């Protein structure tokens, strides 16, 4: 098998509509119109060449430490933009020669990393 990249990441959320507004309005993803009519609420979003699929799961509790990372070109500019939306971020951490990173949570409590590669 040869893998050529990540097509999408599926994220469980407790309220698909609230989560979609956060991922679109705050993180800047765009909603796709090709999501099939599944028997559960959710949303398909585009971010760069990849997709994020939100799935509404009643009573979902995010696992500790599990996260996905969003590539940003300037973590400080991203931090300032997120502050205008009232989003709390961790301190920026530098991993020498690798990246700068900071963490935030979506409305369900899923952990999201902002990653500025070096």
What does this structure look like?
This protein has 118 residues and is of the alpha/beta class. The chain has a single domain, classed as Roll (2,3-Dihydroxybiphenyl 1,2-Dioxygenase, domain 1), CATH 3.10.180.10. The protein has 2 helices and 8 strands, in the order βαββββαβββ. The model has no long low-confidence stretch (mean pLDDT 96).
Layout of helices and strands, plus pairs?
Layout: E1 8-13, H1 16-26, E2 30-31, E3 42-47, E4 50-56, E5 67-71, H2 75-83, E6 93-95, E7 99-105, E8 111-117
Parallel strand pairs: 1-4, 5-8
Antiparallel strand pairs: 2-3, 3-4, 6-7, 7-8
The DSSP helix count reads: 2
CATH architectural type: Roll
Under CATH, the homologous superfamily reads: 2,3-Dihydroxybiphenyl 1,2-Dioxygenase, domain 1
CATH classification, class level: Alpha Beta
Radius of gyration: 15 Å
Pick out its properties:
alpha/beta; globular; 4-stranded mixed beta sheet; 118 residues; 2 helices; 2,3-Dihydroxybiphenyl 1,2-Dioxygenase, domain 1
Question: How would you briefly describe this protein structure?
Answer:
The chain is α/β, with parallel strands linked by helices and 118 residues long. The protein contains two helices and eight strands; from the N terminus they run βαββββαβββ.
């Amino acid at each position: 098998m040869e893998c050529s990249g990540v097509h999408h990441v599926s994220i469980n959320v407790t309220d698909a509509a609230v989560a979609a507004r956060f991922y679109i309005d705050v993180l800047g993803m765009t909603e796709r119109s090709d999501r099939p009519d599944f028997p559960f609420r959710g949303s398909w979003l585009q971010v760069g060449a990849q997709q994020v699929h939100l799935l509404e799961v009643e009573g979902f509790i995010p696992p500790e430490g599990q996260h996905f990372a969003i590539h940003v070109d300037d973590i400080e500019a991203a931090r300032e933009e997120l502050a205008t939306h009232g989003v709390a971020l961790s301190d920026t951490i530098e991993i020498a020669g690798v990246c700068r990173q900071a963490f935030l949570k979506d409305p369900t409590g899923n952990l999201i990393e902002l990653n500025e590669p070096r």
